[in-house]
Input
Amino acid sequence: MKPLDPRLLKRARGARVFLLASVLIGVLSGVLIIVQAVLLAHGIAGVVLRGSGVTAVAWGLAAVVAGRALLVWAQEVVAQRAAAAVKSTLRRQVLEHSLKLGPVWLSGERSSALTTLLTKGLDDLDPYFARYLPQLILAATVPAGVIGWMATGDLIAAGTVLITLPLIPIFMALIGWVTQARSRQRQHALAVLAHHFADVVSGLTTLKLFGRAKSQESAVRRVTDQHRAASMGSLRLAFLSSFALELLASLSVALVAVGVGLRLVDGKLGLETALMVLILAPEAYLPLRQVGMQFHASADGVAASEEVFRVLETPLPVRGERTDVPDLRVNPLYLYDVTVTYPGRDVPALEGFDLELRPGEVVALTGPSGAGKSTALAVLLGFVAPERGVVVAAGSAADEFDPAEWRRQFAWVPQRPGLRLGTVADNVRLGRPDASDDEVRLALLAAGAADLPLDKAVGEQGQQLSGGQQRRVALARALLTDAPVLLLDEPTAGLDPETEARVITALRSTGRTVLMVAHRPTLIAAADRTITVEPAAPRELVNA
Ligand code: ADP
Ligand code: MG
Output
């Protein structure tokens, strides 16, 4: 693990400001530590050798202590601010990036792992900024200053410190190797735990129904046990390593002290210098030792930020910036030889698919489950970039256009309606927030959901509505937009035949272009044309 990930500095301005301020504070702290040791040595030697007063020295010391306290406070303030700024920057960047990557990428991620990362995971950056980084900077500035100053008084002592000091980082690096793997394990255990809980809770009714709820108990117990063991493992390692570093530092200081004592007895060293060296010696080791301690507190944060960078470095599909998207009310839309293979799959989800969609047409897309119908819609919307083939409108390829502008031509009802917390009206208005209540009612009527009150509450993921109701709300949402092309993924699944017939009539009467994934004969019969998507053959069979 790098002590400071350069990507963090590149991505977050807060981190750069913080680093500058911290270096300044670190240098000042080093100076104050030396002044304090000199004052102390001078005061003690004065009292012992010359019997002089201590008032002036005491005042000086008080000022130094106050100065150091002030620096600690300043460091804390700077660190907390930086941590908050960096966390919010990273969160925003991940959210923006995952939005650009689109729903298809998201469905390949474990959404609960992403949620843990963006909430709890990134919070682990707090100790990284508040404890580890400031200490790291102190470890770079203070020992150098202290050894330099010691060298002006006693070269041998300075040499002893210089030789023993590197032992601490060497041991730290050794311990670090082991901790890194542990921390990854812990992060992984936490992600698995989150995923498992989310899964169990969302499927609890089903599990209960099939009498499998009890058996989940042991699974949850096993996963929590793993997490506990991983946590205890990292703690054990943390305690052991700080013990080792403590011991090393104590022995080194003792070595310096023995040398200084011998030279003092021999009369080769004055009392004031000897005192100064003795007081300074532990100060050289302290920051390094503390870096070792803070290292463990920060490892989780660093692992989380690495995960963030993994998401941020997922390349975005290359898209143009043209905003003059052809109006699909008058221009036909073509798909030529479109082939899509999802990452990690060896069989294409859609292969050599051609489609012509003329304005005002109602086209049904049929084919067995898994044939690639939803994928074809995702290609049209620009959520997946085909590995081969193009989407063309008015002589231009779709990927030349700005994705947001391109999508304005489409209203999409996905297979899972994707409703949000709010009311029915909120959900219907999503694509056109300024629509009046009457327009919303009209859209609901056309979608066969006239019975749904506008202010009816919709739970997260549409939980307070039945499957058919969710679908109708999503359909009303699409109908309310003025997009020229409607992409409907099994729009009438879960509707009774009567409602379905009404929806079909409404769809036809809009005069818009409709491409719908259809299974039911009534829906297929209502289309002008039917296109069948053939499942792609596995590559081996093609070659054979
Ligand atoms: P359909 O809508 O016709 O049922 P899909 O287009 O949803 O089919 O899926 C086609 C194939 O691609 C299926 O084998 C499915 O498992 C796979 N697939 C769909 N989405 C993803 C994804 N995000 N990652 C990997 N494979 C996927
Ligand atoms: Mg599908």
